[in-house]
Amino acid sequence: MFFPNLFPKIPDARVEYHEDFYAFAKAEHLKNTLLEEVPWRQNKIKIFGKEYDEPRLTQLYGDEGISYGYSGIDFAALPWSETMKSIKIDVEKVAKMTFNICLVNLYRDGKDSNGWHADNEKELGENPVIASVSLGQERFFHLRHNHNKEWRFKFQLHHGSLLIMAGQTQHTYKHQIAKTARKIEPRINLTFRKVVM
Ligand SMILES: O=C(O)CCC(=O)C(=O)O
Ligand SMILES: [Fe+2]
């Protein structure tokens, strides 16, 4: 795969950013439709034996029969809605590959977040490609290298943008969406993935 839009330049990773993947009006329409139509769920996470609400709402869409899990949470995927199907087709054109699941996140406000992690579940194969569409409130996306402390990056994910992480990225870096004290609007993020086993 060739990466023409490496922004910013991140060593030891493959990260491609398409800021204007969706024009403003289209991005607004998709955000409002998904806010309404997705049956958002509140997952519980266990930390040292105690249960907490995950700091965001989520849902999983995917091809029939595919299930996917992380941090001990197992989802059965919902069938693709018309909206989700159309976004998947648009993403696949740019990524030049197909995806069979999409994990959808709703960050309701600045208290919602996604802690440091890598999307390296074994179902995603050796070098997972994660194609991530952002709608609504811009939030900072952080990347930090697992060994070199100087390789830390932080950039805004714009309304209507597409970020693709590929190659070794899930082995060499962790990423997060941090909390913020600013008073902000909701953000939807869709991460398309390919379960290969
Ligand atoms: O919200 C984002 O931009 C990132 C989401 C993410 O990292 C994930 O769902 O694995
Ligand atoms: Fe992730």
- Return the CATH class: Mainly Beta
Provide the list of bound ligands, each named once.
Answer: 2-oxoglutaric acid, fe (ii) ion
Helix count equals: 3
The figure for the number of domains is 1
Beta-strand percentage range: 35-45%
What are the segments in which pLDDT stays under 50 over at least 5 consecutive residues?
Answer: none
Short description:
The chain is of the alpha+beta class and 197 residues long.
Overview of this protein structure:
It is a single chain. By secondary structure, the chain is α+β, with helices and mostly antiparallel strands. It has three helices and 14 strands. It has helices at residues 24-37, 82-95, 169-172, and strands spanning 14-18, 44-47, 50-53, 57-62, 67-70, 73-76, 101-107, 114-117, 130-136, 139-145, 152-157, 161-166, 173-177, 187-193. Strands 1-12-9-14-7-4 form a six-stranded antiparallel beta sheet. Strands 8-13-10-11 form a four-stranded antiparallel beta sheet. Strands 2-3 form a two-stranded antiparallel sheet. A hairpin with a 6-residue loop joins strand 10 and strand 11. The mean pLDDT is 93. The structure holds 2-oxoglutaric acid (AKG) and fe (ii) ion. Fe (ii) ion binds at residues 117, 119, 175.
Helices, strands, pairings?
Blueprint: E1 14-18, H1 24-37, E2 44-47, E3 50-53, E4 57-62, E5 67-70, E6 73-76, H2 82-95, E7 101-107, E8 114-117, E9 130-136, E10 139-145, E11 152-157, E12 161-166, H3 169-172, E13 173-177, E14 187-193
Antiparallel strand pairs: 1-12, 2-3, 4-7, 5-6, 7-14, 8-13, 9-12, 9-14, 10-11, 10-13
The structure holds 2-oxoglutaric acid and fe (ii) ion.
The site of 2-oxoglutaric acid has 12 residues, from strand 7, strand 9, strand 13 and strand 14.
